[in-house]
Amino acid sequence: MTPYDTARLHGTQPDLYETYHQPALPAVPVSAAVEPYSERGPMVWVPGPDGNFVGVPRDMLPAGYLHSTVMPAPPQRDLTPQPLIDPRAQIVLAGGVAAGAAGAGIGWGIGQAAAGIAAVSGSSALVVILALLLLAKAASRRGSATTYVHNETTVINTNRWFGKSSTHC
User: Could you tell me the pTM of the whole model?
Assistant: First the structure.
């Protein structure tokens, strides 16, 4: 016994092997009918009057109490091949693709027309500028000596991976 075990000292805790009061158990019958397992029919669990399930021999149930043990055959399946994509979805997708292609075609056409207009206006502006330069040069040539300027420029372009380029003069 530990020195601080005051419950044992005052008698409020039972001894280790103290016998407890046991409620009366139902009397066990001395003799009973013996029924071998092989002679007993299958047991079925059915709801009892108190809501719990009770085991009853199957042959003691009234006729038609249990459902049929034969499972009905499932309905025949339709095995005809189905389309991979829903036909309505195909129509909607085709409409979207056609609209996108038409929009791209219209955009491409407008771009071509704009490029043509820009090229015509740009080239005509270049022709006008060249004509003015030639007229200015012709006017300046009348009273001056001819001067020739010769420029040589060597340009080296180096292209590398991933679009990196460098230019050296």
Answer: 0.22
